[in-house]
Protein 1
Amino acid sequence: MQEDKNQHTFHVPVMGIGFTIDTPVKVAHYGISSVMSLVDDILVEKMREFYSKKLDLPFSPITEKNSSDHRAERITAYLNMVDEIVHSKFAELKRSIHDTGEEVQKYIDMLPDFSDVKKQFQEMIAKNTVRDDIAAWIDKHLHPGSIDVNIMTKLDKDNYRGDAKLPNEFNDAHAALRGYAQSTLRSCIVFSAGMNPRLYSYIEKFGDFYPDETGDIKKKIILKVSDYRSAIIQGKFLAKKGLWVSEYRIESGLNCGGHAFATDGYLMGPILEEFKKNRQELIQTTHDIVKEALKNKNRPVPASPLPIKITAQGGVGTAAEHNFLLNYYGLDSVGWGSPFLLCPEVTNVDDHTLDLLCKAKEEDLYLSNISPLGVPFNSLRGNTKDIEKQELIDKGRPGSSCPKKYIQLNTEFGERAICRASREYQNLKINLFGEKGLNEEERRKEFDAVVEKSCICVGLGTSALIVNNLSTRTEGPGVSVCPGPNIAYFEKVVSLRTMADHIYGRTSIVNEAYRPNLFVKELQLYVDYLKNMIDETPKPFTEKQMKYYQLFQQNLDEGIAYYKQLYADFEEKVAVLKNDVMAELEQIRHELHEPAFANR
């Protein structure tokens, strides 16, 4: 079984489509793991051409004309190139010990101070160990970070060749999975946005996802989940196919970036507690199932359960919070997303958006309805994609030309799906208004709801083109950005080393004067979310709606009780919280039970 080579206790999650599209090229040789999106094969192809020219690598374009499987082949070619670049940069880093040693020192400096690797290196330097011995030690102990990829399972639209619908394996997510499976990468694939049984069944076709005789899996599966129930259901589903889930990545439902898949009032602390309590049961249950499935497939069967990592992300902002999650809940890593948007060494953020992010306050960050998926979407006021969208509305031409078509999922107007942000869809919807006999107020409300949808599959990738001076002629210059609420407390552009120092408590770059604890912030977001749902629901409530709101409130109450018990029982942990955290929790609880709220 291959050893776990991760030496950092943080990872860089996927952000948008283009913000982390080449992050492994920038950070993996320093031992930092990160995740790239596989949504946009057009952007992937442009980035492959960009790096080929920059590094004088061979490049042959993959087009719809010269390939019947162009999406998968583009992804494979790009991932192979990233793999080659990362390992070349890492080899160069190791060789630097014979010169200035600056790159090796940067790798070591960024490690947490408790790292055994860091301590051993410092001891060797202090003893003036000969360089050849240090080089041999480096070769054995330093490793690049994992080059991971993300597939959003819901983005799995059917594709066509002319008018002929292609088989399922040419669906977007299927093709992306195949592109990864056929690459040279030894890493992980993250599946987000819930279970897609058809896609999960397709994984069975690729041998790299199964353990070998030693228990090693070349390509590991990570599930991004919102609660334990989702984890055990998906884990068992895959286990029945002989597929092992190597990591469950828990993300806050609301205190995160991108799409917000809100739970029914279940808070992150209690969810993490459930994983902590049931971790061994999760491992043993899925091991028993996967063992039988592998046996039936005549594949190697691990004698003992394979490792499972539990990680989390969403709203973490201080070293104290980071360490608390690791130490109390036993997490293997913590994802730091939005703060890295202020780190140009790591992410692709254009100057205008970078300035907006630095200046953003709590009131500039909000949950919007702009996503064509119909899922709440974290937005930043003043982003250039929203400005571009409004200009088209003002010209009487609402909607996008839909140049990339990745969210063509709506079949309201025919079997062949279209996107709710497209000009075609919005015109069709607006033309129906006359048949509905709406008054002016009703018409304006419905019009606003239709044209609010934005072309995020383009907007979330454009920044990577702008930063790298690539043409945006097809896409347009508008940039969508989807930071989590946590970005409001980070106010300046920083280097990768400074960010690592902040995560590990060697410096602080967060404005802690008015930043609430991550659990308190999430709780407030959920209270606000519940209030907005209630306010926007036509009265009187149906019995089903009332039961749902009561369940939501009950789950929040239980979450508050959990936190109060947690911090009462573990007084030493209170150091990670602001002094008034308990008062904040109590205030929110009272707010939930105000007569005006409860009797609505």
Protein 2
Amino acid sequence: MKHVIAPVRVVVIAMVISVFGLMNAEAQRLKAGPQDLSFFSSVDDTDQPYSVYIPENFDESKSYPLVVFLHGAWSNHRLGMRRLFGVGNSQGYDFIKPGNVPFENDIEATRYWPEFRAVGYIAAAPLARGTAGYQGIPEQDVYDMIDDLKSRFRIDEDRIYLTGLSMGGGGTLWLGLTRPDIWAAIAPVCPAPPDGTLELAGNAGNLPVHLFIGDKDFLFKTAQDWKARLITSAKRLDYAEYPGVGHNSWEWAYKDAFIFEWFSQFKRDLFPEQVKFSTQWFKYHKAYWVKIDDLTPGEMATVDAKFTAANTVEVSTSGLGAFTLNLDGHSQFNSSRKVTVKVDGRSFSLKSADAISFTKSENGWANRKFTPGLTSKQPGAEGPLYEAVAGCHIYVYGTGGNPSKEELAARRAQAAAAADWSGMGGRIMVFPRVVSDREVRQSDYVTSNLILFGTRETNAIIDKFSDKLPIHLNTGADGYGLVYIFPMNRHYILVNSGLPWWTSPKAAPGQGGLAFMGSRIEVLKNFGDFILFKDSPDNPIIDGNFDKNWKLNEADAGSLSASGVISLQ
């Protein structure tokens, strides 16, 4: 009997464990409706919140479309979700608005979830650090949130939609046009786009766009400029203009779940017949079946590739040195036959199972894959200065030169001031570390960009890499500031010697675009790869960019040497 009882007990125990596991899985299942989740951000080792809506009668085996909503300035993810579903007032005013309890302001409305209209979508709204715009770290948060959602739910990747209002409307345009092949359609509402976004309007060739604006909005002229561009460049442009309405057109744009109905018309096509794509950065180098392999960072590169017949592609380019066509999966491509590719008038007849690459030389285009040099600008090593703070980074002050207690405290205070991301919007939820040069860990070199304050005489990390760094501020260069970015160990080093980059209050960000953060970090967007200034950045001696091999051109090197305060490697 002993030999019989033991197996039975094992089976019973296994069944209990199995049932308990199923019960536990049921307990862990998220409820339907709006709620909060979070993802872990490697930028500053924090949990970042976002709001999510889960449809009624949610079926785990079914794939769902996803709507991503980007909130406006002085708002958050919870208010954003309410806006998306047409529930909420505008800009925190205390008078009655549709869907709000009388006299309820935004702070009070954030504390609970009202009843939402049922839709067959998953919807998500990130905090994205608060009022920080949607470039750099907040931009990465959006994509990290989407990855987190994909790990939790079955998301139909051909039905991912993007919308947002004001600052978030500008973010909708920026994210939608820098990476157009992620989205099935976008809907910017009264958008306040960052500088440089309008130049990318041509990237909407395969994106349906719905633009909303009130004719009394202070951004009305901005919206008209976008309408003029998108009417010719977008795959489809729908436009809604509300007479007499100011900067609260979202109350009409999102009313009665309209945006979900509009999005339902569209699915992403990863293999459109034609791809027009422009970019200035390796960071945004791909759209659909076209990838730009070589460009000059900061200068616009454009490619226009089109199937004119089966296995026949015409390509025109501007400002780029190499590209790849990833044709496998396209209905017009048959890998068993040769494909004819005409590049800027020159024809090639080739056979390939998938990707076809071209590189430009003095003799013109050649069917050759581009390989960047070890020291050349490339993805992850292209600048400009702002890229050093666009991901995981730490602020490092120096302890060298036998400083007094007061001087050491002043050095730390300078680094801490740079690490304070709070600006005019306040409560920007970015929490980088501030450490001394003695406290930098080996793992920091692997994971983080280093923002280094001081000189090789005062900061041990600058001294450690001094033979590799191209520029140094001389001892005794009082009243000067030097700031530059340089790639190191697959990450960036940003060196700030002398006066800090935010010295002048006149160094306001946003030349032509709208900056919301208003912090010292935002000031970096004004510069290229380097700047040497006297007294303030408003008085630059020289500013510019390193060449494609991270070298100074002859004229810039001469100007830096002539300053009398710089040593060049």
Protein 3
Amino acid sequence: MALFRRRRRRRSSCHAPFADGVCGAKKVLLVGNPNVGKSVLFNALTGAYVTVSNYPGTSVEVARGTAVIAGERLEIIDTPGMYSLLPITEEESVARRILLEDSPDMVIHVIDARNLERMLAMTIQLIEAGLPVILVVNIMDEAERQGITIDIPLLSTRLGIPAVGAAIAKKRGLSEIREIISHYRRPVHPVPEYSRRLENDIAEVAGLFRNRFTISPKAVALLLLQRDQEMTNLVRVKEGEGFAAVEAKIREKVYARRESFHLDLSLERRKIAERLLSGVFHVPDKRRTTFGEKLSRWAVRPLTGVPLLLVVLYYGLYQFVGVFGAGTLVDFFEGKLFEGYFNPWVTGIVKDAVPWPVIQELFVGEYGVITLGLRYAIGIILPVVATFFLFFSILEDSGYFPRLALLVDRLFKKIGLTGRAVIPMVLGFGCDTMATMVTRTLETVRERIIATLLLSLAIPCSAQLGVIMALLSQAPGALLVWFICLLLIFLAVGVLAARIIPGETPMFYMELPPMRLPQLSNVLTKTYSRMQWYFMEILPLFILASILLWIGKITHVFEKLSDWTAPVMASIGLPREAAVAFIFGFFRRDYGAAGLYDLQTQGLLNPRQLTVAAVTLTLFIPCIAQFLIIKKERGTKVAVAIGLFVSVLAFGSGYLLNQFLLTTGIL
């Protein structure tokens, strides 16, 4: 995911369509369907230091980096996934706009070798648009494992463009790609031809153009015949008064073929692809079914997919993140290192060096920057976040997430989302702030609002989740009660939001990459990048929160807040000291969970109170960082509305749960 790559900004005097262009360097665009290996190729060519920025006027992020190949400096741009030059989603619109506006010196089209016939249709579109295309047939290793053979040289000859067979994740084909880039000369290639009728229609429209475009007249005419609004607006501006004749001809042709134009064009492109692949693409009569394919089918079928998901959650989230990360590692770092050695040592140093008790409290007191801020950040939060991001990277590299998206799509449609939303939802278990930013990838504003609401409400971040799981696992049944409460509230609020918020749920489609064993180098690189991003983001906030908490203590603000909120705490069955955990939670969710950890170790909470506190705190108002991101992404009104709704629902749910547990005596 581009969101987690290390970010570096460059100053530039170039007038690029979006920020941080590299002056004087040749531009190489990577295009293709989602999940075909574009980002892997991008990382292999550019390394870790890249720039990620929003395309102007959109919330779509575009990654760019530099590569030096054969002594020449190149700018590499990783465009969002696209299926065709006719865009449907915002990501496809941005990718197409970059193709039209950036005047690339090379366009590397990355496709999946197993789906060559279907993906070659876009290669044909890029060629007929007159773009300088290089074809990378990726995931060759999986195709060969299935018994598929592809004659790459023959395919290259027929298309009239350079082509490379590759398995980029395993570094296969990278040297050939670099070689082609370093010696690239724009070939004069044949343009695929359609039926006589369609070619005549295209020629009649293109013959009316009086100006030049960045792509061929044939490609422009085809997009106009498909009623591409963005291209229509562009031609209207370029042609001026002459556009009236173009528009009249388009209306005539569209009306004459109103019932079948899109289907006819799709079938013709498929026939061209079949002719190109005759003798090139060989599939055995009986394809060998690999274990990865079997696992892929099991993952998307409800009967087998749900048990598989439960196994992943149990061993990944519960055992690895909860028990090992929040239990074993936190006990070692927080208990032995900080409480046993570091805190006593640094407390002695500060008290010897600083004569004023009030200032001592700032560094090593109850809310000290070192004894609280660093202890929470490194001793409690770091082990949990590290284990979660390692688990997340393993799932991502294995190709499991797209299968999970297909599995939950039907359920997510009930709450106004599609399976695509599973990525920010799962990422929310790592960091809700990150996940809120990733909701940009959802297609509609309605989906983004619903996803943002649910992330703010019922998705605990990894540090909060790990600490809560470690606490509740000590009380039989408490963890199950917590989980059931959150699940029911998640579904109820989602269904209600889907009915209240206007708009339609979009169609869902997703490219399935192969399922494979994760590569250790990829997993460690992703985990390190995410850990670095997360830790650089949270450590300053932990220090700031410690300072604010210290100020609150010396000004007796916390005592006043505890007094004011005592009736609220009592209504949900908690002691007045629990108010501090909720104050912590406002600064950061994981801070609040760590506050519960301290209360529990002091023996101030019984199992019932701990469960009620955990449910209420999980549902409580988003932390400051997440709230600011919501304000930035969704606007002030939406952010305030979500904050108020979540807070009221949190304490209302806590009150009802406390009454239920008191009445039934379950805990």
Protein 4
Amino acid sequence: MSRTDPDEQYVIGVDYGTLSGRAVVVRVSDGAELGSAVHPYPHAVITDHVPGTDVRLPPDWALQVPRDYVEVLSNAVPAALVDAGVNPVDVIGLATDFTACTMVPVTGNGTPLNELPEFAERPHSYVKLWRHHAAQGQAVRINTLAEERGETWLGRYGGLISSEWEFAKALQILEEDPEIYEVMDHWVEAADWIVWQLTGSYVRNACTAGYKGIYQDGAYPSEDYLAALNPAFAGFVSDKLEHTIGQLGSAAGTLCDQAAEWTGLPAGIAVAVGNVDAHVTAPAANAVEPGQMVAIMGTSTCHVMNSGELHEVPGMCGAVQGGIVEGLWGYEAGQSGVGDIFGWFVNNCVPSRYSEAAAAAGTGVHEYLTALASSQAIGEHGLVALDWHSGNRSVLVDHELSGVFVGQTLATRPEDMYRALLEATAFGTRTIIEAFNASGVPVTEFVVAGGLLKNPLLMQVYADVINLPLSVIDSDQGPALGSAIHAAVAAGAYPDVRSAAAAMGRVRRGVYQPVPENVAAYNALYEEYRTLHDYFGRGANGVMHRLKQIQRMAAAGRASAATENTEEMEPAL
């Protein structure tokens, strides 16, 4: 039974994250979040074996199963409606956002290739998650050739195309499994694939096309350029990628009968064009004006902001006209690992006595380490770290880079290293902000969204390191709220995203203020971070790249030996 006002209208935002999908029911008039539900992906992130097989994956692979995404629609959406007490007939629109660049190889009717029996054991038939970094070699060639040829689009991406993005991942498929590449009719962002399932029609969203698909000024890289990368890649754009592009906030179509059955919503309601989790969060935080940088801090961090002017910022992930809201240039940068790094440390580097002490205190290990680290003076641990455990997205755009600790002694404790990692991610963000400021795109406000804003030590460290007040989104479901805002626009409840953001978005301004003495102390540590950053990231030593190559050779040798041993054990026929 409905518990809501019959005169109100509602929308649903569905946020597809790295490990789960979340649906939120939102009131159109004021953005109030009335109910939510989460559905974890049954297969989570696949990094070791192709599901149901003994086929091992090499280092730096990260795959997913697309049917997990459909399960979110059939589980989280109905549960969120029940939680909200909203009658489905009062819902006027639905919108989704996704991690990017997360890519699905499909047939002409949208069937993922991993669902075809003949390809179920082939790694390249699965979704390549955003953090699939195994196409770094292809990315290097893309960048080198573009620089040699003076390709004008390269500057729009800070001079470097990432291994996470559409072209590098597609080129990897072509060169490692040409049969999969040949069978693939469309190379589709998951953000667009899920909208395809909802509406029955394929519309490519302007956000991922511009940021991840090298679509600038109405064109993709030329066929001549692609042929120079690999002759068989010449037709990639026309054969696999190019498609109708929908603008953000517009309707991609209406909810089809099959999706209505999954979700329990009425067929025919508006479904918004797909979008990216970070970019939809800016309207949710009502932070869409020039100078307002929004950092969506979770497993990774994505930094987005608007500007009235176009400038080239070193290492940015793209500058796209209308990439966040219509009429402004949307900029993106990011860090490939943040919460993931903290999670890795807790899962792999903390003695059991800490877990036992945390349990005795009735808290989690993260919270326990944070409490211990909070009592330290800045620099007391004697450490500085590099936050590259998942590579570097901005400003170096190099996923062959890896993490570093400097200053460890026999007296170093887990809480020391934990705090150093918190600080390292803040230093990484400061590096990004300084690149924007120096390039004529000044950052005047820093707005935080995502799960990590719940850590007060981390937030204060960021305020002190970047020397800016921190505003925080007044929502636990920033991306889902942002998607709901886009759903309201697509359904015609507001004329555009900016007006919808003003009515439905939420933010608390200046919650964390920089402390002058802390700022001075962190300036000294940041100088050491920058020394390490440039030595390992820009210098000619190349040690991290060589270690990656040694790792790959060792893994390949082990896989070859395992195959030979298996063949020797097979009985003769």
